[in-house]
């Protein structure tokens, strides 16, 4: 019998520091297992298209255009996005290397710092945030679809006047249609997601560049670089750095579970190359589009737009409006799958590895994203600010603890085999499967992060809350961490599976 069928870590995988152990069905299945190095398919282009889609998301455009409204001019916005891009390139490369080396998804990666049982804490926090945003993003995309349907069939507007559980008939049709499309795509696993992202990336870039050119033409090929309320001096630079920090915070979820994707990466070089083209350079292109859209609209009528959808609605040609709207739908689906669908799938797999696989966990995640009626969440500031905002604030400390443990305490020496055993002698068993030191560090720094997010007295530093939380998480953990070791570096190849689902 093979290693994969028996789940045994055989003699070929043993070293003096790696006692014979059995892979536990409570910790291991084909989706949580490390991926074989041979056959990995995520190259630099695939990493790049992740960012080509995610950077150009509607939420990011709304955020960046909001900087224009807050008093930053064109070049200041580019500097803010450039600084944020530089920080993200470093953080995402470090996070990505972890996945490439170990071949495991985020919930399993969390076992290194938090223990084989304690890892449920970061996995559930990340998964809960993702499921809520999956539903919300699907709802926002369904609003665009409703506009397209009415544009193509004006009589459909009659279906948009009633309400059932907060949505009209047309709203339900649009939401369920997009929900089904995403479930079908994800049900084919990470390989189908890779192909979809590769398809969607160029579509989005071409569409947004075309929209910027159309706006330039409408503004007689000139834009407003500033508004009358533009900031200067120290206030300007503080807002630039604050904007860069918030830009990093937006990706606070992704820097945690980037390993979900890079576990399939062909090499570290592919990660660096894909990140370089997809983060700092792509973000400058994104910034140029933002400045063009906002500046052109302000020059035309003195109005500051809130999102690209505001411009799309004003396209006079129905065919062009539909094409632009379809591109925005393709974009939103791409972003939703990578940022909000994959994380809860692995989190659920980690909770019930004996009963779930990628497809079943995807369906359960999607059902939860539907039954929570996400449009009602989106329309409730209290839910968005306190529930999702509170969970989001904890992501900074989680990142700091996990990264400090991996890079500074263990220096990237990871016993991948021990991540899947309940043996009390296993390196990641700690105290009944929980690293109490990591949990204590999380509780202490989570309290600080939540205070920064919600206490009015800390409003002045709220823009830097993710960095503060991540930094404190790392520092507190390094102070109390057990550094005695030994920290063994053992490959997971003996129990690895092919990197496609």
UniProtKB/TrEMBL annotation:
It is a multi-pass membrane protein. The keyword Transmembrane helix applies. CDD domains: SLC-NCS1sbd_u1. Keywords: Membrane, Transmembrane, Transmembrane helix. InterPro entries: Pur-cyt_permease (IPR001248), Uracil/uridine/allantoin_perm (IPR045225). PANTHER family: NCS1 FAMILY NUCLEOBASE:CATION SYMPORTER-1, NCS1 FAMILY PURINE/PYRIMIDINE TRANSPORTER. Belongs to the purine-cytosine permease (2.A.39) family. Signal peptide: none annotated. Pfam families: Transp_cyt_pur. The chain crosses the membrane at residues 63-92, 127-152, 164-186, 198-216, 236-258, 279-300, 320-348, 360-378, 384-409, 438-458, 464-481. It comes from Mycolicibacterium nivoides. This is NCS1 family nucleobase:cation symporter-1. It is found in: Membrane. Its main location: membrane. The keyword Isomerase does not apply.
């Amino acid at each position: 019998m093979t290693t994969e069928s028996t789940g045994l870590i055989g003699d070929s995988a043993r070293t003096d520091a790696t006692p014979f152990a059995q892979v536990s069905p409570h910790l291991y299945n084909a989706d949580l297992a490390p991926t074989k190095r041979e056959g990995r398919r995520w190259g630099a282009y695939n990493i790049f298209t992740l960012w080509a889609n995610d950077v150009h998301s509607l939420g990011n455009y709304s955020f960046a255009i909001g900087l224009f409204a807050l008093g930053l001019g064109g070049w200041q916005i580019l500097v803010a996005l450039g600084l944020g891009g530089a920080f993200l390139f470093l953080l995402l490369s470090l996070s990505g290397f972890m996945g490439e080396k170990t071949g495991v998804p985020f919930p399993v990666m969390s076992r290194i710092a938090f223990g084989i049982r304690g890892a449920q804490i970061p996995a559930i926090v990340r998964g809960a945030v993702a499921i809520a945003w999956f539903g919300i993003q699907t709802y926002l995309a369904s609003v665009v679809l409703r506009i397209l349907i009415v544009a193509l069939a004006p009589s459909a507007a009659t279906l948009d006047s009633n309400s059932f559980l907060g949505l009209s008939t047309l709203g339900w049709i649009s939401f369920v249609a997009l929900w089904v499309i995403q479930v079908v795509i994800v049900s084919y696993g990470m390989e189908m997601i890779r192909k979809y992202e590769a398809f969607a990336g160029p579509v989005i870039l071409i569409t947004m560049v075309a929209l910027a050119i159309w706006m330039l033409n409408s503004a007689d090929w000139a834009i407003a670089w500033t508004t009358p309320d533009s900031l200067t001096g120290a206030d300007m630079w503080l807002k630039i750095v604050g904007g860069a920090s918030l830009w990093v915070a937006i990706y606070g979820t992704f820097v945690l579970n980037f390993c979900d994707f890079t576990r399939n990466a062909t090499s570290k070089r592919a990660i660096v190359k894909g990140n370089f083209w997809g983060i700092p350079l792509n973000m400058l292109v994104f910034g140029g589009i933002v400045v063009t859209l906002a500046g052109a609209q302000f020059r035309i009528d003195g109005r500051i737009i809130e999102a690209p959808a505001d411009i799309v609605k004003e396209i006079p040609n129905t065919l062009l409006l539909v094409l632009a709207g379809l591109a925005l739908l393709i974009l939103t689906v791409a972003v939703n799958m990578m940022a909000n669908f994959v994380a809860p799938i692995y989190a659920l797999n980690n909770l019930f590895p004996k009963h779930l696989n990628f497809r079943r966990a995807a369906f359960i995640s999607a059902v939860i994203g539907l039954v929570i009626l996400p449009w009602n969440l989106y329309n409730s500031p209290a839910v968005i600010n306190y529930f999702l905002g509170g969970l989001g604030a904890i992501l900074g400390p989680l990142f700091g603890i996990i990264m400090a443990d991996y890079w500074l305490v263990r220096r990237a020496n990871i016993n991948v085999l021990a991540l899947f055993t309940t043996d009390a002698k296993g390196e990641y068993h700690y105290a009944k499967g929980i690293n109490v030191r990591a949990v204590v560090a999380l509780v202490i720094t989570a309290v600080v992060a939540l205070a920064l997010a919600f206490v009015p007295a800390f409003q002045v530093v709220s823009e830097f809350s993710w960095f503060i939380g991540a930094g404190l998480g790392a520092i507190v953990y390094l102070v109390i961490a057990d550094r005695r070791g030994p920290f063994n570096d053992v490959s997971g190849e003996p129990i690895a599976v092919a990197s496609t689902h």
